[in-house]
Amino acid sequence: MRCNEQKPLAIQEELERHILHGLSCEWDEARWQLSPKHQEGFRKPIFSIRDMRRKWGYWSGIKREICLSRNLVLEHSWASVREVLLHEISHQFAEEVLGTDGESPHGPTFQRACYLLRANPRASGNFRALDERILYGPASAEDKCLARVKKLMALAQSKNQHEAEAAMAKAHELIKKYNVDLTTKDENRNFVSFFVGKPALKHFREDYALSNLLQDFYFVYGIWVPAYVIDKGKTGRVLEISGTAQNIKIACYVNDFVKRFINFQWEKYTKNKRLNRYQKTDFAVGIIEGFRSKLESQAPKRTKKNRALVKLEDPLLKEYVSYKYPRTAAMKLGALRNDKTVLNDGIGIGQKMIISKGIEAKGKDKMALIDNPKKSVQSV
Q1: What 3-state class would DSSP assign to 352?
Q2: pLDDT band at 363, cuts 50/70/90?
Q3: What per-residue confidence (pLDDT) applies to 360?
Q4: Beta-carbon count within 10 A of 153 CB
């Protein structure tokens, strides 16, 4: 019995060692965001994980320690962990580099540190974790558009192909109109950034194609950012999208729906066939290209009457992205190796794909975020 009890404990201890290394790697990334002047004298602290009920983490200047809640690091997404970590790094930076001079813990100097480190000054205490706020937060008055989109996606499950197509087209038209209306209003909007999927050391070509689809049609801005991959013990990359909470919810839903659709169709397509992973990429890219062409064909033509439905860039989102990611670089993908037959078959299937409210999954992989379930998202 004791051996059985010790084995899970040993697994958790090993996991926490990986997480602590990840916190150290994320600290390095945060420091890199600072100017050379501010990097001087900013030394790495000790990292620890403890059981805490009333707070997500804390910075101790006496111990030179950043401690995070065990519940946070084991039960929430890495994006949520990183948000709290950046908050505590800001406390360290404010005290050791900027100098707080007897100010309150969240005073002007700390606010300045959060600005320089792109940290959320509120991500502490009883503040809800990022994944819960974005994906499963309570509906607000501003979510009327999301509620209508949800109803249309339910209609898109219709077995009548014409009705399903019309419902999906209407949902996309509504999303476009809602966002174009927002860009005409000269008022502040609360933008947030969130990981789509989990950090990984390698991403396939379809991952980049899908990220471009989200950015081009769902009013979010995507950047591939460094992020720690816990099970590998190394820093990889993950797609981080920025936008309003409503648009991020929709984009995450679409991302998950398309991936599940690809996997389902691939199982059907490869039955009694021997195809490799490269061909699955061709098939997946084809589905995404086919769906993209479908969305483009459904877009209203630009005329004087329907100009409001033409996709516009949000200047405030561009401003937010410029602040959030001060240093960006273009990525180069390797040479393409296409199986034209598989690619074209994927395009044909993608042209028939309908985004609907109907994803079903069991356990922690469930991502029916349009339904606003209370269950927490996939843990790291």
Answers
A1: coil
A2: very low
A3: 39
A4: 22
Closest CA to 214 of 268, 291, 136, 121: 291
Q: What is the DSSP string of 236-303?
A: EEEEEEEEEHHHHHHHHHHHHHHHHHHHHHHHHHTTT----HHHHHHHHHHHHHHHHHHHHHHSPP--
What's the order of all strands across the beta sheet hosting 65-69?
46-50, 65-69, 57-60
pLDDT at res. 329: 67
Asked if residues 166 and 355 have their Cβ atoms less than 8 Å apart, the reply is no
Residue type, 20: L
Give the residue carrying structure tokens 């066939």: 273
Is pLDDT of 187 > 70?
A: no
- pLDDT of 359 strictly over 50: no
The mean pLDDT value for 153-165 works out to 79
Query: 3.30.450.20, 1.20.1080.10, 3.30.2010.10, 1.10.3470.10: which CATH number matches 2-127?
Result: 3.30.2010.10
pLDDT of residue 362: 38
**Residues 23-71: pLDDT tens digits?**
999 999 999 989 999 998 899 999 999 999 889 999 999 999 999 999 9
Least confident span in 142-146, 197-201, 302-306, 323-327:
302-306
- CB-based contacts of 249, cutoff 8 Å, min separation 6: 134, 135, 146, 369, 370
**CA distances (Å), 178 to each of 9, 24, 224, 244, 246, in order?**
50, 41, 27, 12, 11
Q: What is the dihedral of CA 65, 70, 75, 79, to 10 degrees?
A: 0
In angstroms, the CA 266 to CA 283 distance is: 8
Residue 139 is classified by DSSP as P
Question: What residue has token string 């800001």?
Answer: 90
**Six-digit token string for 173:** 């038209």
Neighbours of 323 (CB within 10 A): 11
Domain range summary for the chain, segments of one domain joined by +: 2-127, 140-371
Between CA 267 and CA 270 the distance in angstroms is 5
- Calpha distance 148→330 (Å, rounded): 37
Residue 63 DSSP symbol:
T
